[in-house]
């Protein structure tokens, strides 16, 4: 293994959890890491939240590991996802043995549209009183997401997936999203079940077991996956993969966590699990699974960071994961 991995820690606890994931990647492989600057601090220093060198780094790497961005999220994450050509954000939310979870039976994955919706950047301030946002939905992006979802469920031996939308209100945009996703699934022989995204928020709290794979528009995926994080023990547990045709970017679902940044107590699990997804993306399935198992074991046995009721630091948890790997 000598793949080239771009590493962009970003802001806040990104500076703590990304090094943890690098330590774990170092323990299972021989990668070339190249570091890039991005985020709020980079903007303060250079005037640019995502300098051209960092863009090039992500574009040329075999994969990118990203931490978190704060106020500059729209100037960092959205372009980075674009640079790697990502069309789906895969966000698994599952409860782990040993972790106190509101809904321990939760085990689902969001397949979030990753390029458009209300995150497409078409915002305008038209007057002192009025700002507008254009919600973009194309059949092509919806179909690409749906094709991915069909393959995803097929590979896992599932019959189908849920489609979360709000087509009863956003008739044109979510209507197009829903119709396209359902049509693509039908033509692939995959079953779909529709659920209004607001109703989904209630159903997933009451009975998460009914959901395996949930395909959803961009903003819905962002919000609903954070909701699911609340069911499984917190944002410190949710990894994600932004997958493109030829490149990909991996990041924890959580943001910069300014309340604990710099204290050395951030839970590294989400980023280490994102690194496991990166390993699998690069074809290192065995190593990816080993990392996932090591994280699971440490979550079960401890040490645990304060978000999970423990008093361990980021480094204690990381060392324990590395120890489990060896
Ligand atoms: N690592 C994820 C992160 O930095 N999250 C901050 C955020 O605002 N994310 C929006 C998004 O994931 O679309």
Question: What does this protein structure show overall?
Answer:
This protein is an alpha/beta fold. β1, α1 and β2 form a beta-alpha-beta unit. α1 packs parallel to α11. The mean pLDDT is 97. Glycylglycylglycine binds next to α4 and β12.
Structural key phrases:
10-stranded mixed sheet; two-stranded antiparallel ribbon; 11 helices; 20% strand; globular; binds glycylglycylglycine
List the helices and strands and how they pair.
Blueprint: E1 4-10, H1 14-28, E2 32-35, H2 40-46, H3 52-60, E3 63-68, H4 73-83, E4 86-94, E5 107-113, E6 123-125, E7 131-133, H5 139-155, E8 160-165, H6 173-187, E9 191-196, H7 197-206, E10 213-216, H8 218-232, E11 239-244, E12 248-252, H9 269-281, H10 285-301, H11 314-325
Parallel strand pairs: 1-2, 1-3, 3-12, 5-10, 8-9, 8-10
Antiparallel strand pairs: 4-5, 4-11, 6-7, 11-12
Helix pairs in contact: 1-9, 1-11, 5-6, 7-8, 9-10, 10-11
The chain binds glycylglycylglycine (GGG).
């Amino acid at each position: 293994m000598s793949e080239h991995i771009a590493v962009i820690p970003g802001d806040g606890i990104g500076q703590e959890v990304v090094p943890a994931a690098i330590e774990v990647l170092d323990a299972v492989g021989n990668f070339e890491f190249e570091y890039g600057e991005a985020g709020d601090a980079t903007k303060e220093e250079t005037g640019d939240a995502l300098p051209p060198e960092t863009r090039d780094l992500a574009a040329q790497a075999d994969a990118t590991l990203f931490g978190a961005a704060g106020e500059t999220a729209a100037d960092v994450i959205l372009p980075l996802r674009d640079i790697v050509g990502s069309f789906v954000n895969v966000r698994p939310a599952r409860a782990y043995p040993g972790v106190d979870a509101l809904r321990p039976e939760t085990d689902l994955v969001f397949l979030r549209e990753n390029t458009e919706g209300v995150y497409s950047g078409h915002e305008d301030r038209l007057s002192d009183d009025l700002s507008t946002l254009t919600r973009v939905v194309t059949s092509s992006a919806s179909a690409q997401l749906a094709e991915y979802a069909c393959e995803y469920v097929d590979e896992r031996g599932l019959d189908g997936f849920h489609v979360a939308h709000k087509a009863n209100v956003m008739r044109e945009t979510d209507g197009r999203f829903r119709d396209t996703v359902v049509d693509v699934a039908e033509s692939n022989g995959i079953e779909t079940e529709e659920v209004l995204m607001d109703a989904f928020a209630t159903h997933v709290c009451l009975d998460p077991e009914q959901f395996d794979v949930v395909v959803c528009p961009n903003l819905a995926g962002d919000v609903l996956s954070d909701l699911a994080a609340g069911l499984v023990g917190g944002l410190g547990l949710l990894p994600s993969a932004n997958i493109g045709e030829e490149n990909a970017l991996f990041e924890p679902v959580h943001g910069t966590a300014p309340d604990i940044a710099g204290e050395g107590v951030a839970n590294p699990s989400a980023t280490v699990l994102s690194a496991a997804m990166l390993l699998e993306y690069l074809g290192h399935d065995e190593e990816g699974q080993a990392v996932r198992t090591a994280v699971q074991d440490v979550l079960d046995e401890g040490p645990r960071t304060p978000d999970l009721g423990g008093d361990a630091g980021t480094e204690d948890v990381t060392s324990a994961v590395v120890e489990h790997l060896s």
